[in-house]
Design goal:
Layout (H helix, E strand, L loop, with lengths): L5 H22 L14 E2 L18 E2 L10 H6 L19 E3 L11 E2 L2 E2 L1 E3 L11 E8 L2 E8 L4 E10 L2 E4 L4 E4 L1
Parallel strand pairs: 3-6, 3-7
Antiparallel strand pairs: 1-2, 4-5, 7-8, 8-9, 9-10, 9-11
Length: 180
Amino acid sequence: MPPRSSCYRTFVKAIAVVSWLALIVSSACGRSATPSAEPPPKVEPGSPTGSPTPRSGGAPSVTSPSAATGTLSPVQQLITAAELAPYWHTDRAGRLPIRIVENPNSTDRPSFEMFGAPVQWIAPAAATPGSAYVEVSFSLVDGILELSLRYRIEGVTARASFVPQGPAWVRNGPVRVAED
């Protein structure tokens, strides 16, 4: 078989990016396109779509899996990972509800609960120094989503890679946590 041309490889990458964007738009990243009168089903820790059992502080109860896939968005998968459980300190003032800074380059803002309270998506201007909030950043390279969450008040960053699997994103490898 002759080697593929760079034009062909560029075309394949473009198709992958367009497919990824179509997935994001069609699934609304964890939000149903039509509001439901019923509350979303609760996902129990340890279930196939729930969060792993944490080491301390109790498991965050996670609700609202994607209506299209029944799975959690990449943000939900990473923020509820057991590796982050030691850093939430929900008994301290100002730690609940969990606040996530909106990334203007993403529509992935699923509605879900952690520790019995709905997470709040906040504007970047509301992320004031000394307050508790999670910053989300990401990159998509060759069909692999690299997601990063930074929790400044604890001086910790968590990273994970995700790959598309059908209509869902599946974590590809461990959650990597680094302290400043």
